[in-house]
Amino acid sequence: MEISSGIHLIPGTMAHVYVIVEASGLTLVDTGLPRNERKIMKYISKLGFIPHDVKNILITHSDYDHYGSLSSLREFCPAKVHASIQDAEAMHKGESSRSLKPAGLLGILYRLTLPYFRAKPALVDEILRDGQSLPILDGIQVLATPGHCQGHTSFYLSSRKILFCGDSLRSSKSGLTGSIPKMTWDLALAQASVRKQAALEPDIVCPGHGAVIFNAQRKFPAL
Question: Please, what are the domains in the chain?
Answer without folding.
Answer: 2-218 (3.60.15.10)
